[in-house]
Write a structure and sequence with these properties.
Its main location: membrane. Keywords: Membrane, Transmembrane, Transmembrane helix, Transport. It comes from Anopheles coluzzii. With 575 residues, the chain is an all-alpha fold. Helices cover 66% and strands 1% of the residues. Strands 1-2 form a two-stranded antiparallel sheet. A hairpin with a 3-residue loop joins strand 1 and strand 2. The chain starts with a helix and ends in a 12-residue tail after the last helix. The C terminus is likely disordered.
């Protein structure tokens, strides 16, 4: 137990206490609170991702007539709720001067909404609307991300912030990864599960995810109680010392942020997330169109590609802080984040010598031959499609005849593989190679974590030590808006105009944002007592301040000796 406690509690080194802003005990309490924020950000991401692979079969079981159109509303309810309430929760935290009450309310709502999702069987009617309502409430509860980011800015020194924001971004990414893994783990309960309330409520592979959220939400709620979570806002103390002010409010009022830089970073965050949702929206249909993969093959291969991409992104989160100790943050953001994301889009512009394989009956015939050659069914369990062999889902002990009809059929009754002729551009454009796809995905997996982390880091420094709840809410809301608009824009452009327009427009969008960031690079700096990301900025400013004070004192002493009266030395001529 003592070893576990030592792992969770961060102890200061000698250099950490040299500035005299806190004691060793206060340092430990501050970093304990920061690590609780890490867990909270992990949980908010987990709450969104844990149901994604199971929500469709759960909805279909509760209401077979709901349809996949309603599924889209359920998945979209979470980011919409977060987008609406993030600025409001951030403003509330600013008004209170504390994040404890907003977070306690958000986590209570998170647990209640997750409980509703787990208990949908208890509602006799309108179960699909109760599911929609529960997902919207979870989105509302995840608006606490705004105050978490605000507190992270307030609870870290300037030199610590890049590393802290990198870790909180890593925690969010892990939440998105672990969610589907937990959903897969609870499939051992099966569809019927264990009865909790006889003939009314069951613990099965769908409801278990809701109960996991409930338990983790209650734990998170307890971590924010006063005897565990102690708010430590050291950024204001650091600024007060550098500015020579006597109060926090006086300090941040004397340090006006660069609003153009702030809005530039909010816009850059919107564009970055807007381009990243390509992976969520088009990756699977793109591979099916370009490489003539079946639904099962696309889901299987994309699962592995995304897993490797997630590992690569996690490694990049850990490398951001060391990179920013060698190079300025603005340069790392522009070249490591936006330039690589732009390359990731440009690489997807078709370069193959041959057009994509069209989804015509002869391709379907080949798929049929593959089925007939292999009597033993290859089973792939997809939550969104029912596929036999690589086209239909069956039980492992099934011994009946092999059907010849797929889910989407041509006149012959068999799935067509390849680029559908209904997309006119399939007949005229060149195809994409698998190497292109993998290289572009790798650029995205590297560039996105760098971009999203450093935008948030620089944004917090541009705003200074002032309360940042409302501003962080606006940034979080812009990301949610891009998650809502991005899929609609990308899927429409892709379907109607094809690869050149889809990836050409997104590459131009990233290039234009990168050029604007390059023009603004000199202004994307902390105010006004810090000018770089290397961690030595405070020493430099303190040294300059001391030199200026000594020069001023020498001038005043010289004036005293000439005039014989120190009170008369501060004249316009002397200054």
């Amino acid at each position: 137990m003592e070893r576990l406690k030592n792992c969770l509690l961060k102890k200061p080194s000698k250099n950490d206490l040299d500035d005299g802003l806190e004691t060793a005990a206060e340092y430990t309490e501050r970093w304990t609170s920061v690590r609780i924020i890490y867990y909270t950000m992990f949980l908010m991401s987990l709450g969104f991702s844990i149901i994604l692979t199971g929500v469709w079969p759960y909805l279909d079981k509760l209401d077979p007539h709901a349809g996949k159109e309603f599924l889209g509303w359920i998945v979209g309810a979470n980011p919409v709720g977060q987008m609406i309430f993030s600025p409001l929760v951030g403003w509330w935290g600013n008004r209170l001067g504390s994040i404890r009450l907003p977070l306690l309310c958000s986590l209570a709502l998170f647990s209640i909404a997750s409980g509703i999702y787990a208990c949908l069987e208890l509602f006799p009617t309108d179960q699909k609307y109760w599911m929609l309502y529960s997902r919207f409430l979870i989105g509302v509860s995840s608006s606490s991300v705004a105050v978490c980011r605000s507190y992270l800015s307030a609870a870290t020194k300037v030199k610590e912030r890049t590393g802290a924001v990198s870790m909180v971004s890593l925690a969010q990414t892990l939440g998105f990864i672990v969610g589907p893994v937990l959903q897969g783990a609870v499939t051992m309960f099966g569809e019927d599960g264990l009865p909790l309330v006889k003939n009314k409520l069951h613990l099965n592979m769908y409801t278990a995810t809701g109960w996991i959220n409930v338990l983790m939400g209650i734990l998170n709620f307890c971590l924010f109680l006063p005897f565990v979570f102690k708010e430590k806002r050291i950024a204001a103390l650091e600024a007060m010392k550098q500015q020579g002010m006597q109060s926090e409010k006086e300090t941040w009022k004397s340090m006006k942020p660069d609003y153009l830089s702030a809005w530039t970073l909010i816009s850059a965050f919107f564009i970055l997330v807007f381009n990243f949702v390509f992976l969520e929206t088009l990756a699977t249909p793109l591979t099916m169109d370009m490489f003539a993969w079946t639904k099962a093959e696309a889901l299987y291969y994309m699962a592995w590609i995304m897993a490797v991409g997630a590992i690569l992104a996690s490694a990049m989160f850990l490398m951001i802080d060391p990179l920013c100790k060698r190079f300025p943050e603005q340069q790392v953001l522009i070249w490591g984040g936006f330039f690589l994301m732009m390359l990731g889009r440009a690489v997807y512009i078709p370069m193959s010598d041959t057009p994509p394989k069209l989804a015509l009956p002869e391709n379907a015939t080949l798929a049929s031959l593959r089925m007939e050659d292999d009597v033993t069914p290859y089973v792939y369990g997809s939550n969104f499609t029912n596929v036999w062999s690589n086209l239909t889902r069956v039980d492992f002990d099934y011994s009946g005849p092999i059907p010849t009809a797929g889910t989407e059929t041509l006149d012959g009754g068999i799935d067509a593989l390849g680029c559908p002729p209904s997309q006119e551009w399939c007949k005229t454009t060149r195809g994409m190679t698998i190497s292109q796809f993998l290289v572009g995905y790798a650029f995205t997996a590297i560039g996105y974590p760098i971009g999203v982390t450093l935008i948030t880091t620089i944004f917090s420094k541009v705003l200074g030590p002032r309360p940042q709840g409302t501003w962080m809410g606006i940034m979080t809301g812009s990301g949610c808006l891009s998650r809502a608009l991005g899929p609609v824009f990308l899927s429409t452009i892709y379907t109607k105009y094809g690869l050149y327009w889809t990836f050409g427009s997104t590459a131009v969008m990233m290039a234009a944002t990168m050029m604007w960031l390059w023009q603004m690079r000199e202004r994307l700096v902390p105010i006004p007592y810090d000018a770089s990301c290397r961690g030595e900025e405070l020493v430099s400013v303190i040294t300059k301040g001391d030199q200026a004070s000594e020069e001023k004192k020498t001038t005043e002493d010289g004036g005293d000796q000439l005039n014989g009266n120190s009170k008369d030395s501060s004249t316009p001529g002397d200054s």
